[in-house]
Structure formats: structure tokens, C-alpha cells
Amino acid sequence: MDNIHRLKKISETYEMYGLLREELSIEIEKAASQSGNEAKIADLLKFPNFVTAYNTVISKDSKDEGICHFSSVTCDTTAKYRTYDGTCNNLDNPLWGSAFTAQQRLNPPVYADGIREARNTSSLNTKLTSPRVISNEVMHSDKANQVESDYTVMFMAWGQFLDHDMVLTPTSKDSEDLNCCLRKKEQTANPVPRIECLPIELPAGDKRFKNKKCMNFKRSASGPLLGTSCTPEPRQQINQITSFIDASNVYGSSEEEVETLRDESQREFLKIEGSDFPPSGDENSCRRSDKKFHCLKAGDARANVILNLQFLHTLFLREHNRIAAMLTDLNKRWDGDRTFQETRKIIGAMLQHITYTEYLPKVLGSKLADEKGFIASKADFYDKSLNPSISNEFAVAAFRFGHSQINDHLRYYDSFFEPGRREALLRNQFDDVSMLQNNEGRRVPEVARWMVTEKSREVDRFFEEEVRDWTFKEFDLVALNIQRGRDHGIPPYSKWRLYCGLSELTDWNSLKTDHDPETIEKLKEVYGNPEDIDLSVGGVSEKHISGASVGPTFACILQEQFIRLKYGDRFWYDRNDEWDPVVGFSKEQIASIRNVTLAAVICNNVNTGEIQKDVFKTG
Ligand code: HEM
Ligand SMILES: [Ca+2]
């Protein structure tokens, strides 16, 4: 009962921010005032919860591209498997959590012009301090303040891999726009860059917005598309992938994408190349490639970014093919498609299970992650009123806490678990697959050993210079995180304390509850007023709640999102076929999924030798 009560409360919040009935009725009135709109009105009435707060839902089948309207999606209620784009998970609101829909907001945005200009003024009516300056002053680190955490590199890596299953916010990488965050720039004025745009680069064959040029992650072209008829008011950012934890990072978020990843003749398998690596992508799939090595192609457009991510993509590709081969053996009458889908369903369940039982308890601490915290408990109900879509503040701030865990180097560990002498600095490894692929795949276990042996950094205000100064050789990722938050109109840290039911910030002294004195001094140096502290800065620098890897504000935003992702997912893995005969696993299947650990997945696919049971903890 308690659970239900709590979730009801959360739903009420969405009622306020999420289901804009008022906006909807205005829309209906508008439509009714013109003749010939009967079909549209019927459509709006059919999906009374269709419009979410500050979200413009991009039509799925719009012929008049560029016009936002509310369209219906026809769902097959008897479908056993998830759609690739995440539509029809929620049968009342079929676009919830699906790819190419808007993100959500937990707090109304504070854009400078109320609509789309980045938050740029302080509460004292002066310009906010440049993100680069804040990064330099507050987040700079040297060896002395780089604290090791109790957890491994694998713990950090899982966070990034998981992030890439949940959210991809399309961005422009115009260097002019990113002035704020270039390493060499030390400017004090905030340039108010506009670094967001609508996702226009769509899979081949998709006609949506076909004449509008925009940018995908890391592909540079023309400037962002602002002010189109699809620009939400106030502006809301879009998620290009499915919000659900459904292994969209492995399979992609559309039919077209998965086709490019599947083996053409043996339909149950994913394509492999070389020594069991994902297939090569096109020249855009990574910036640096050598003829000897191929850049990985996976469901995640960012699969090549860094070694730890390349490893996990390789691992789950192998796991898919391993399970598909077993299922083929066991079920002689299944065709390739059936085996593929069953395997995909199992892989998605594994990602959910590992995330909620191995990963999240270490992020949120047992208090928030245990039974009462809804995270590690069995999901014994589904709440279709919960919209599982990723929230903007989760993606742009809270879940980026992982950037503080990143180490400055990578290296191989031999079969005796001894570190190689040579360390490779992170800056030399962006989008470079050679470290994983050289030596005909024999490096893969050496990389795995590194990830389960070395420790990641503690989450705190100190970031490695490798990411603070050298992301893709030229960016300050920390400054970029701050700037993105402003660009998305994310309210400052002080508002989030109130949202999370924490004590109010009244003056610098009141920061003491969750920040240490030295941090407060640093914050004082760059912010005129504690009210102006950016969420990503105030959040990451909080003292951790007991047993957790983050402080109370980030924990609150993270927990809220992970509750929706679990109880708002009709396909959640541990509700069995008695609970839902169409999509549920059998009890036996669930029992075996519950036995899965990331360590077991590694052992089954990579020749590491003996490793610890919990690969997020040092052995
Ligand atoms: C070596 C490791 C990592 C690198 C090089 C890296 C790099 C990046 C870069 C370049 C961006 C895009 C920034 C922007 O344009 O706004 C980004 C976004 C992000 N990162 Fe990381 N990251 C790493 C690890 C992590 C980890 C461990 C986590 C979480 C635990 C994480 C969570 C995120 C999230 C949530 C986003 C926003 C995604 C979106 O909305 O599109 N990252 N990261
Ligand atoms: Ca997903």
C-alpha cells in the first residue's frame, strides 16, 4: 500500500507538470474553432494524456513534416515483444518513452526569455559566471585531491553504457557554439550559446523533417534549427532513443537501425566482424580510425567514444549471439526472427536486472535502493499513469555524476592481473578502437581485467584534467555540462533542494548541511549568490548520503527517474506471465535472469580467468 501511495504522489506531480490538461483543452478549442478538424479533435480526445508538460510530441507519421501535431499510433495489444522505437509500451499513451519524443521536466524551465534563451542572469541581475571559469575554480583537480572510490572502473563504465540505453539528446557541435567550454578559452562573459537543436538526422527512409538540416551527436554540419514550427514553447529537448532500459544501445531505436546490425542470412544473430567484434560503422561512426581497425557499429551512436564503452558493446554483442545459439539448439522449430526477438527480450531483462540489483544500490545507497526505495524490490505492480520518459534534469545534470568517476588513464592487465607498464592517457583514446582490437582480439580480456581491477574515482567536485581539459582533445566536459544545463533552462541548485524536500538555501552558511567548508569557499568565489549555483555544480559537490555514491539532491532526481523506468515499463522483466500472460516471462525464465550478474556475462564471453562475483567492487 505504501508503495502505491508513494507512486500515486509521483503521478500527481506529473498531473501537475506532466499531463497538461489545460494546454490540451486549449488545443482542442483551437481545433474546434475551425471546420474540417473533426479527425484531429477525435484524436486528441482519444489520447487525453497525450501532451506532456513543456513537451512537444513529434508526430510519428506526419506527412506535413515540421508541423507538430498529435497523432495516434496503432498498437498491437497482443505483441509479445517491445517495439524497437519504444512506442506502444504504454497502451494508453503509446508515445511515452519512445524515441524522438520530448524529454520531461520535473521543474518548470527558467529560460532567459521564457522560451528558449539559455539561463544567463544571476539573481543579482548580473551575468552568470562563465562555465569555464567555474570549472577552473571549483572542479579543477590535482593528484592530491583525486580520491579513489570503493568501486571499479566497471562501475563507472556501466553508468555510461546504461546512460546510452536511456538518453541521447541531439546537439550541435559547432565550435562557435561551444566557445563556452573550449580548453583555451578563459573568457568571463557567458556567450549564451545555443547548442541544442531538433533531431533531424533520421534513419534512411524516414521522411520526417526531410528537408530540415540538423545535427546528430558529433556530426558537424550547419547550425542548429531554431524557431521551426516544431520548437516547443517553452523549448524542450528531445530524446533520440528509447527511454526504457530495453537494450536499445545494443539493437538501436528503430527497425531500420536493427536491420543494419543483424546478420543477413542467419537472422537470429547480430553481425560480427574480426575476432567477435561488432561490425564496422560508416566513416561517421568514429572520428579516428585506422585501416587496421574498424569503428564499432552498435545501436548506440556513441559506442566508440572510449575503451570502456567499446568493451561493453562487444560483450553484449557476444552475449546476444551466445544466447541466440543456445535458443536455436533448444527450439528447433523457431525461425531466426523468433529466436532474435526472444534473445533481445532476455538481453533487455539482463540489463534491467544488473542495473537494479548490482548498479543502483551502489549509486543510491541501500536506504533509497532497497524495498522501501522501490529500486531493488520485486516489481509487483505496473502503473500505467507513470510516464517513463527521461527527464531533462536527469540527463543534463544528475546522471552526469559519472563524469567525476572517470580515471585519467586506461591500461591492460595480464592474465596474472598485473598491470601493464604503459598507461594510455584518456585524451589519446577518444574514438580510438585500436586498444581493444589490436592483437586479434586478445586484448579484450586484458581490458576486462583492467575494468574489474582498477578503481574509479569518487564522485565529488574534482574531475580529472583528462576530461576537464582534454575531452576530444579540446573540450572541458565539466564546463559543457554546466552550459548545457543553462541552455536547457534548468533551474539552479537551490530550486532542486526545495523540489527534493531538502532544507532551503538562505545564505552561504545554509549550504553547510550538504557541502564541506572548503567547497563552500570555492563556490563563493564564483557565484555572487548561493541561489545561482548551477544544478550540476551544487549536485556533484554534495557530501554523499550514507552508503551512496551521490548526495541527496542527485539521489532524489535519480531515484525518481529509476522508479518511473521500472513501474512505468509494461515490459519490466520480473512481472511474470501470470501477471501478464502476453509480455511476461515464465517463472523459470525469471529465476534464471535473477541469477545473472555482470561477472557471469563476462565469464561467458571473455577469457579473463577468475574474477570476483561483483565486478563493481574490487575483488
Ligand atoms: C570515459 C567516460 C566518459 C566520457 C568520455 C563521456 C563523455 C561525454 C560527452 C562528450 C557527452 C556529451 C556532452 C554534451 O555534449 O553535452 C556526455 C554526455 C553524457 N554523459 Fe558522459 N562520458 C563518460 C562517462 C559517463 C558516465 C560514467 C556517465 C554516467 C554514470 C555518463 C553520463 C552522461 C550523460 C547522462 C550524458 C548526457 C547524454 C545525453 O543526454 O545525450 N557519462 N558524456
Ligand atoms: Ca532504451
Automatic annotation (TrEMBL):
SUPFAM superfamilies the record matches: Heme-dependent peroxidases
Pfam families: An_peroxidase (PF03098)
InterPro entries listed in its UniProt record: Haem_peroxidase_animal (IPR019791), Haem_peroxidase_sf (IPR010255), Haem_peroxidase_sf_animal (IPR037120)
Name used for this protein in its record: Peroxidase
Organism: Tegillarca granosa
